[in-house]
Every structure is written in C-alpha cells, then in structure tokens.
Amino acid sequence: MKRIIFATGNEGKMREVREILSDLEGFELVSMKEAGIRTDIVEDGTSYTENALIKARAVKDEALRLGMKDFLVMSDDSGFEVDHLGKEPGIYSARYMGEDTSYDIKNAEILRRMEGVAWEDRTARFVCAIAMVGEDGREEAVQATFEGFCAYEIKGEYGFGYDPIFFVPEFGCNDAELLPEVKNRISHRAKALVLAREVLAGWN
Q1: Per the residue annotation, which of 76, 77, 163, 175 is the catalytic one?
Q2: What is the pTM for the complete model shown?
Q3: How far apart are the C-alpha atoms of 118 and 115, rounded to whole Å?
C-alpha cells in the first residue's frame, strides 16, 4: 500500500481531508506529524498551485532525506477571495493581518471593510489547489472553487478559518452553519479532492 503524506499542520484541514478521502482504496493517508516530518516551508508562490507544489516538493525532499519509500505527497493551498476587495485575502489568506492573528479578528476586519456594500457586490469564493508529488518527482495539480457571498455577519459553530463569513446560497446559510458531512460534499476542498482522486486512480 502506497502512503500519502498530506503536507499540512492544520488539524481542521486534516480532519476534512480524512473524511473526504475515507474510502480511498490502495493508499494510507497520514499527516506530516504522523510521518515524522518537520520542515519549515516558505510559501512564496504567486498562485495557489505554485504554493501547493512548493509545500509538496519540500515534504517530498524531507521524506527522501529520512529514507522513506513508496510514498507520494499531497498538499493543498487554499484561500478566500472577496471580489469587492480585489480578491483579498486570496493566496495570503493564512497570513492576512499576520500569521498569528486569530480568524475571529480576520473575519471581523473583512466584515468591517465590507460595511455598506450591497449584496450583489459581495460575491466571494473559496479556492483550493491540490498538488501531488511522487517520490520519483512526478507532479500533478488540480484546482476547484466554491462560489458564494461574503456574509453580513459571523455565524456558525462548524468549520474553521473564513467559514463563518462565507454565505452559501444553495443552503441559505453561512458555511460554518453547515454540518461537516454536508460541507464535505460541496466545498472547494471536496471538489478539488474529487479531481485529485481521479489522478490518484491512475497513479503507479
């Protein structure tokens, strides 16, 4: 069985990935921590795909240095884009207002900047790119989006990050109000992972 090392230290993200890929056959999914990999990665790409590839390559190199075999690395880079704000925070979503700034503060600031903006001008989306890098250097990447609106208020107890200020028209509520099993069918990460599964099905 080939091991998939998912390059993230975000427990919320790892939980989502495990749920979405729970029935993936032929692969064992582990986090960087579970694989015993620790490495500092500078994400200095200019797109989601570039950043995902940067992370995956770095983890692949460290895994090889540690003598690991029969593995591939998956990594995602995702972000929240608000059209009225010039698609901010975008690829800088995790570092918006500083890496150590809580999402409660980040979300409140985005809503402050969106005060008085009409609903039709509050279009927003989540974007997720997933990169796959094999121990032999093979590289593949996919990308998907989750369209909606920047909400008027913070709502919901589920999810993480910007979920509490993302309104999902299909369900008439904020992303963080959706049960995980619902979100994990329709989110940007779910859509990207479906595309990634198709790639993995042909991975040797």
Answers
A1: 77
A2: 0.92
A3: 9
